[in-house]
Amino acid sequence: PAEEYLNVRWNRAVSGTLRMTNIQGQLIMEEQLEERTWHAVDVSNLKKGVYILSVDYADGTSATQQVILGQ
Questions:
Q1: CA distances (Å), 42 to each of 6, 34, 58, 60, in order?
Q2: Which runs of consecutive H residues, i.e. helices, occur in the chain?
Q3: What is the pLDDT along the chain (71 residues), one digit of tens a residue?
Q4: Could you tell me which residues come within 8 angstroms of residue 43 by beta carbon, excluding any fewer than 6 positions away?
Q5: How many Å is the Cα radius of gyration of the chain?
Q6: Cα gap 31→29, rounded to integer Å
């Protein structure tokens, strides 16, 4: 489980929008990515629990992953 930073890595440089929502679907954060192969998401101010991390890539594709913070 992540506690301070969540490191997200890709096999290639990506651009797009990274979003994190809580389990109720409320937007917690949104960050723009530009030609990144990794990104550190600061989660230190978020409560423990389950979140959904999604990325909408510039090429029109997307990816979603469940994230557990703290424990």
A1: 7, 17, 22, 25
A2: none
A3: 567 899 999 999 999 999 999 999 999 999 999 999 999 999 989 999 999 999 999 999 999 999 999 86
A4: 2, 3, 4, 5, 6, 20, 69
A5: 12
A6: 7
